[in-house]
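Entry 14. Ran structure prediction on the chain below.
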Amino acid sequence: MLNEAVVSGEPHVKLSVYNVPDLARPTFKDATSHDFKPTKVGESFGPSWSTHWFKVALTIPKELLKKELLELHWDGNNEALVWSEDGNPLQGLTGGGERVEWIIPDSFRDGKEHIVYVEMACNGMFGNAPGGDSIQPPDPNRYFRLGKADIVAVNVQARALRLDIWVIGDAAKEFPEDSWEQHKALQVATSIIDAFEAGSQDSIVKGRKIAQEYLGENVDSAKVYETGTEPLVYGIGNCHIDTCWLWPWAETKRKVARSWTSQCNLLDAYPEHRFTCSQAQQFKWLKEFYPYVFDRVKEHIKKGNFQTVGGSWVEHDTNMPSGESLARQFLYGQRFFESNFGERCKTFWLPDTFGYSAQLPQLCRQSGMKRFFTQKLSWNNINKFPHTTFNWVSLDGSQVICHMCPSETYTAEANFGDLRKSVTQHKSMDQDATSLLVFGKGDGGGGPTWEHLEKLRRCRGLSDKVGALPRVHMGQSVEDFYDRLEDRIGKGLDLVTWYGELYFELHRGTYTTQANNKRNNRRAEFLLRDIELLATAATLKNSKYKYPKEDIDDMWEATLLCQFHDCLPGSSIEMCYDDSDEVSLIYPPTCNILTKLVALRQGLQDWLQTVKRSSQSPWP
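Output, structure tokens:
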């Protein structure tokens, strides 16, 4: 009864496909210029990393034209992106039963045929690891069966009741057995079950009415957050996309488009939703390859519900890059955010790197950030890190406010249990009991789903109606959370202080694995230092010489990209190191720069000797 009707196959769903050769990832314009051949549900597509474009012709049956909610359910058990007929991304799909729906627009409810395209990527959210074991090399011959391509009339009340009973059931399982709250949850759940009659829509409506006894009356809208009661947990949607890990950079570019398209749709549908994202490199890719999505993101940033954080080029390793590279991560990141969105980031966001250099607070403060968010230290396998919210001080005395979400994940499922952990695992309750709940599908992208947002509405309703569950609030930003902390500190709150390195006690071998990649990084750092020095000297000595800023920026951005926290430490698949090796081949712009500098060598040699004699630097 979750669906009022399901329609598949011709004449209402006609499928044809263009199988892209040679593992290429063509643009929309290129892909749709080819011939498409008929296909059907049940056929398999592959191999791993290949791309297949589907032309989907939809005709809504007359009997469904006035249904409340119509969706296209597409499940190829892999990632995909729905495109409009004129070439705009519409919805990211995850596959395997998760995020398989695209809401069919009202303009399709005219009985006529309408075209959309689906770009199928032959990889799952976590690449192509055999049997889901990410330690193993990816399976190069994986095929994916198209399991579903349906027009679905959703039973909106039945879908809502499923979520009602989900949250009430969690309360019955997780509240103490001798508590009034658990007894009431069992009683309400049993009453809903007793009221249900298969095939009866009235019984579903009755079940929802019963659920209000436990969840309150406002869980179907953002009004549930307007009770004025004081929350402890602040929900923030996040989509941590590893810039490379179990997939190459080329796939990351598509993951960004899929994920952020989905989030823009949710931001339109759920006024309380706030989504935060870091990594300037990913924004730049979006701007270059998916300008329509970038414009949507930019509009939501202006509205304040799509929020930029991080301030760095990528979520980078902090142990192996040189000090100059760490400074450039912030320089290039903050420059991009300010030039494209009008302001710099205020919070350094680094949830998933393998340890934290003692110099980071100093670099953060010099980059205009005095807040820091992470989570990874909760994975320590020897010593449990003792704090949730604290001051972190670097070797020079620079200080930032640090928060680590007590739910101990940056990919929370927004469950009842995640909210309970936000209190039961909070290590700074005697100083400040509030926390962030960072939720949404991550690592491989995707971000929050509509189910996450619906569950949080019900959890908030439960907290206000029954109590005992930490009260969650939606609709505020990461900066709002830290603003409150700073306000309390200004009024006398004395947080504990941690001095020096935040050492991560789990991932090992990150200083030695993929040694060639590490050598390339260090060579690039030395090369960039030399080129900048020589180019600066040439600019000062020769008025006709133009400093090659664009080329040097390109070289720095490539180097910073390779310092991503799964690339430089060595935790990615081989394909990623093929990518980084290609970038590290002394970069094409280098030859042009050096050729011009060689022509000026005599004047530069004289100038450099003068600098060397007067310099106190240990550099030669």
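The longest strand covers residues 51-59. Will compare against last week's run tomorrow.
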